[in-house]
TrEMBL record:
Any Pfam family the entry gives: Methyltransf_5
Predominant location category: cytoplasm
Species per Swiss-Prot/TrEMBL record: candidate division GN15 bacterium
UniProt binding sites for S-adenosyl-L-methionine: 38-40, 58, 85, 106, 113
Protein name: Ribosomal RNA small subunit methyltransferase H
EC number: 2.1.1.199
One GO CC annotation: cytoplasm
Encoding gene (name): rsmH
Length: 314
């Protein structure tokens, strides 16, 4: 299942903004935890000196193989490791640098993954209902849909798709799977379409497919785990940049960053001065999330929901 060629290219989101916010040392070490097709790594390479070092992680073995090839010609490129980023603490020892000047996360799914029907991410093409970033491990969306009970299915659709009609969708799925196993993207899409008024169908399908993708890949748990692990690997003065694509991700990034630059005082109530000694460990580089401009959205509509937040370690 290869995904190369122009049809499976990925356009990096806000590359100029990422580069300008992330680089603090032109000869430093930088780690992209969502290497994808290496779009951001290439943008970074273009602005870094020859002594800089570039590393990556991606859960998708196809992305790792192809991007390792693509990046060979860059003098700063070192290696990309195939792993879920929440295992950063276990795999970071394989890099030649042990601390980084910049760490990037560009969350979610890449164009080569969406555009390859065989990966099962898209309701716009017909393929196996897979949705795993790593097709060699974990359960597929089809297996989840086949085995979870109606309540669990509704919970996934409600929590991860923010879909109000989740109970109705879950009921339709359970009724259909009693008739025939739901094993393809087009079958799931047909079930959802059948219980959704026409004007809302595209948005509803996007929400339901997002919900199962998040559940299959445990995306929110991965994100909650990786942020503190990445922060530990930053040098003092190093920066972490995160691009998120929906409110569930952005909320986790926002609250985690805030806990670093505005940590909670743990003193008992009523004390006249703080004695717990809690201290900020980071400063905000972006006070508000940075969004792509209109020209970028016109060129690359998949960028439209992107939000970039950046912090600097003290
Ligand atoms: C939006 S794409 C990144 C694209 C990349 N910035 C570029 O310019 O080519 C997100 C990538 O993150 C990877 N990914 C998602 N969740 C991951 C996780 N938990 N661990 C490692 N990689 C993950 C996906 O496989 C995908 O390749």
């Amino acid at each position: 299942m290869t995904a190369s060629g122009p049809d499976f290219a990925h356009t990096p989101v806000m590359p100029a903004e990422v580069v300008s916010h992330l680089i603090t040392d032109r000869e430093g070490a930088y780690l992209d935890l969502t290497a994808g097709r290496g779009g951001h790594l290439r943008a970074l390479a273009g602005q870094l000196g020859a002594g800089a070092r570039l590393y990556g992680i991606d859960r998708d073995p196809i992305a790792v193989a192809e991007t390792t090839q693509i990046l060979q010609s860059f003098v700063q490129f070192r290696k990309i490791i195939q792993a879920p980023f929440a295992e950063l603490d276990h795999v970071a020892g394989q890099f030649d640098d042990s601390a980084f000047n910049g760490i990037l996360l560009d969350l979610g799914v890449s164009s080569p993954q969406i555009d390859n029907a065989l990966r099962g991410f898209s309701f716009q093409s017909d393929g196996p209902l897979d949705m795993r970033f790593d097709p060699d491990s974990g359960v597929t969306a089809a297996e989840l849909i086949d085995t979870l009970d109606q309540k669990q299915l509704a919970e996934i659709i409600r929590s991860y798709g923010e879909e109000r009609e989740a109970a109705r969708m879950a009921r339709a799925i359970v009724m259909e799977r009693q008739r025939q196993k739901i094993a393809t993207t087009s079958h799931l899409a047909a079930v959802i379409r059948a219980v959704t008024p026409k004007p809302q169908q595209t948005k509803t399908l996007a929400r339901v497919f997002q919900a199962f993708r998040i559940a299959v890949n445990r995306e929110l748990e991965q994100l909650e785990k990786v942020l503190p692990l990445g922060f530990q690997l930053l040098k003092s003065g190093g920066r972490m940049a995160v691009i998120s694509y929906h409110s569930l991700e952005d909320r986790i990034v926002k609250w985690t960053f805030q806990s670093w630059f505005r940590p909670r005082c743990t003193c008992p109530p009523g004390l006249p001065v703080c004695v717990c000694g809690v201290k900020a460990i980071a400063v905000a580089v972006t006070r508000k999330p940075v969004s792509p401009g209109e020209a970028e959205i016109a060129r690359n509509p998949r960028a439209r929901s992107a939000r970039l937040r950046v912090v600097e370690k003290l």
